[in-house]
Amino acid sequence: MKWQDVCEALFGPDHGIVEQDELLRGSAVFDGEPLDVLGTTHHAAIGYAMALRQARAVLDTVQRSPGRTLLLLVDTQGQRLRRHDELLGIHRAMAHLGCTVDLARRRGHRVLGLVYDQALSGGFITSGLLADACHALPEAEIRVMRLPAMARVTKLPQELLEQLSVANPVFAPGVENYVAMGGVASLWRGDLAEALRRSLAQLPAEDRRMLDGVARGGRKLAAATVQRVLDAA
Asked: Are 44 and 76 contacting, i.e. CB atoms less than 8 angstroms apart?
């Protein structure tokens, strides 16, 4: 779904969201309250400059609109793989972006993520996955690494990884698997405005992703492992 269709379904045709060089930004009114929107489109690659532009937008919301809800619309192919960005310090720029989202949450902003098209790798980690809760459209595409690339990194045969991905969501791409692992809270089907309303009302007070992963059978050991570490501390 195009970002224009998503915004119109959420806020009506008179929303104030605009695109500039693959960056989505603006404000809308939802259920009588102002809400800020930040995101990317056209499968944007998150490079040094884009990360800083997004971070600036988050900080503007924190500074100018205390407590205002922030909706992150995610459509990214991941971090930009260019030497230019590496030399400029893309890792620090993306870390800065993540810190601004964390700051917004600590300052009392409700931060919600929505993967409406594509979410890959670091571009997803520093945006939607840092929200209080991240949701997705059923037709969205989410993955961290393709199986051929995973085979090269892990030195495991691709055939083995394909077999594992059938029964283990950790090895498999797709929104359903991310729901099973707890990384995506839910899929928004049907009335998107009602889905946003429900998600805001049910926004968790704490990070439930590991607990959801256990309950949904997609990520069974993370919560237990963290608890063992805490018990041993």
From this structure: yes
